[in-house]
Write the C-alpha cells for this entry.
Amino acid sequence: MINILKFGGTSLADAKKILFVSKIIEEKSRNNQIAVVLSAPAKITNYLEKLIKYSIKKNNFKKIILKIQNKFIKIIKKIFKKKNKIFFKKILKIIKKEIIFLEKTAKKIYNSNKCSKIIFAKIISKGEILCTNIVNNLLISKNLNTYLINPIKKIISTGNILESYADISLSTKKLKKINISSKKIILMPGFIAGNKKNQLVLLGRNGSDYSAAILSACFKANSCEIWTDVNGVLTCDPKIVSNAKILKNLTYENITELSKLGAKVLHPKSISPLKKFNIPCYIKNTFNKEYPGTKIFKKNKNKKNKNYPSVTYIDKICLFKIKINNYKQKYKIEKKLLKSIKKKYISIILFSNSINSNYINFYIEKKYLKKTKKIFQKIFKNFINKFERKIKIKKKLSIISIVQDKITKKDKLIRTIYKKLNNSNIKIISTIKNDSKNSISFIIKTKNKITAIKLIHKIIINKKKIVELFLLGIGGIGKTLLKQISQEKNILKKKNISIKICLISNSHKLLFKENGIKTKLWKKNFKKTKYNFTKKNKLILKIYKIIKKNCYINPIIIDCTSSTKISNQYIKYIKKGFNIIAANKKFNTGNIKKYKKIRKIAYKKNKQFLYETNVGGGLPIIQTIKNIIQTGDKIVYFQGILSGSLSFIFGKLDEGMLFSKAVKKAKKIGFTEPDPREDLSGLDVARKLLIIARESGYNLELKDIKIDKILPKTLNKNISVKEFLTQIKKFDKFFLKKNLLAKKNLKRIRFIGTIDKVGNCKIKLSEIDKKNPLYEIKNGENAFTFYSKYYQPIPLVIRGYGAGKQVTASGVFSDLLNSIL
C-alpha cells in the first residue's frame, strides 16, 4: 500500500526546513512506498501574484522577480553549493530559465495591460514546479530513487482554469499506465493539473491539499498525511486564542463544516475524494514529527466521537436581506437567484430561508459584492412590476461558528453564549443552525469579532465553573483572601470550580496574567511587575485597557480598598460585563441616586453586586435583610453594635481596663484601623447603619445619620497616631467614672446604632441593662437585632465576630462562592 504525504509552504519556507522535510521523506520511504506532493515555499505564491498585479498596473515588476530569484538561489546555495556543486549548477540553470520566462511574460502583460487565465495559471504555478525540482534533486543527491509525476498530463481536470475539479476516474486510468517501481519515491508539484486540451490549470484554494487527496484516491492510498507547522487541527485560530487545544480526531463531516465556515485546514473539495474512498487523513507537524497530530476519518455510528468543539470564523461578510411580499413568486426568485450565483462561481457561505417568512437571507464574502449586485439587477428587471420587493445589504459582518456533533441540540450552551455575549455588549444579528446539525453560526459586527471568538472559545472549552478574579487592594483582607483561595483550591476543584486570579493590584502597581496568577508565587511576581503607577487614575485607566483588550466568561472585581476613586468606577465595571464584590463601603454610603442606579444596571445586565462584608464582616446581615423584605416582612426597629473594634474597647472597660490601654490593645491585635481615630469618630459605624437603613428601604444620605461623639473633647487632627495614643490618656478618668456609674446601675456602656420605625438613624454611647440582647456583646463581637412584623416582641438576633482580616476575608470569599453557585 502507498502513503501520500503533502508538505505545505511553511514546511518548505527555507533551506533548513527543506532539508528537514527530506529527512522525513527518507524515513517514511523505508517502511512503505510514498508519493509526495509539494507546495511552493512560503511567500513565493504571494510574490507571483504581486508580479502579475504590478505588471498590469505598470509598476516596477523587476524588484518582485529579483525577490523570487534571490529566495530560490539562497535555498539552493545552502543545500547544494558546498557538498553537491553539480546539483547546484543544474538547479541554478532551471531557476534562471524560469526567471527568464517570468521576465518575458511580465513584459507582455505590462505592454498589453492584461493577463489571461492561462498565463495567470502558468505564472502562479512556478513556485510548486521549482520547489519540486529542488526536493527531487536533493533526494537524488542522497542516492534515493525518485519518480516525477507531471500533473498536467496525469491529473485530468474540468471546469474553470483557475478553479478546476479533478476527474478521479480519468486520472486513475492515466496514472495506472505508468509503471512505477515500488522502490521509487513519487514526487508531484501540488496546486496544478491539466485539462483535456493539455493546458495547465489550477486547483484553486488549498490546491496542494487537493492534489494530495486526488493522488490518494487514484492510488487507493493507505493514508494521506498533510504536513504543516502546527501539531494538528486546533479548536480555534491560535493567533486569536493562544491556548487553543489540539483536536485528536475529526470526522469527514466535521472537517467539511469547519472548512466551509472559515477554518484554514482543508478545503471541502480536498475532503471529498478522501471521504469517497474512506482514506484516513492526518494533519501533522513537520517540526514535531513524533506528535500524532489530528486524524480525520469516517464516522463510526456505534462510537461517540468525544472531542472538543471548534470555533471558526469568516471575515468581510455581506448580508443580502430580500423582502418578497408575494409568496408565490418567492420560490421562483430564490431558485433563479441561486442558479445565477452558482454560474458566476460565487460562494454562498450561509443561506437562511424560513417557509413562514417573506425574507430570503444569504451571506457572501465582500469580494463578490459587485458581481452579486449585477445578478440582482438582471433578475429583478424581469420581476419588478409583478411584486413589491425590498433589498437590504449589511456590510462589515463576521460569521463565528461552532462545530461539534449535534451542537444545534445543545440549547443550554447556546443560551449561555447569548447571555455572555450580551453581557459583553455584543449583539448577535442572527443565529443559523446549519442543516447538518453539527454547526451553529452567529453573525455579529466585525468590530466585535476578536472579543466574541475568545469568549465563545472559553465557554465551549471550559467545562468547569470559571471565575476570572480581579483583586483590587492587597492589605490585610486582600492578602488573607488570596491565602484562603489557595488553601481551598483542592476542595473547589472537587466542586468543579476554577478561580483564575487574573489581576492583583494595590494603589500604585498591578500584576496581570490573562491565564491566571499562581497564588503561591503572587508576592514574588508582584515585586517584579512592570506596571508601576504614581497616580490612582493611571492605575484605573490601565485596568480599563486590560478589560477592553481581553474577554472573560465570569469576571469579578473584588474591591478590598477603601478608595472612593475605585468605588466610583463600579457602574462602569458592571457595564463592561463585570460582577462586583465590595468590601469597600464607600459606594453604598455615597449618593443615593448612584446607590439605586447601580442596582438597576446590575439587574438589566444580569450582573451581581455583592457587599455582605460592608456591615458585619463575615456575618450574613445583608442577605438576612433581603430575606426579610422579600418575604413580605418589614423591619420596624433596629438596634446593633456595628463595630468590632469598639465592641472590644468597651468590653475591656467592663473588666476594669483603662480606656487608653484598651484602645492601644485593640490597635495592636488589628481590631482598629491603623489610625484608631477612624474607629472612635463613629463614621465607620454610621456607614454601616446607613447601609442597613437603605437595605431596609429608607432613602437616606450619610449626613442624615446622627452621631453622638465618643470622646468628650476634640483632639488636634494634625497630630500623629503616636501622639494621639499618648494624649487619649486624659480621657481615662472620664470613661472610668462613666463605667463605674453604669455598673452601679447594673448596666454596661455600649456604642449602639439604632433605626426607628420612621427611619431616623442615631449612634451614641448608651447604658443598657441585662434585658437588652446587646448587654453581653464584647471582645470584638458584633450584634444585630431586627424587630419586624414577624420578629417581635423577641427580635431576630445575629451575633458574631465582625472585625479582623480573617473574618472579613471569609465574608468576601463567601460572596465570591455565592456569585458562582
Summary: The first strand starts at residue 2 and ends at 7.
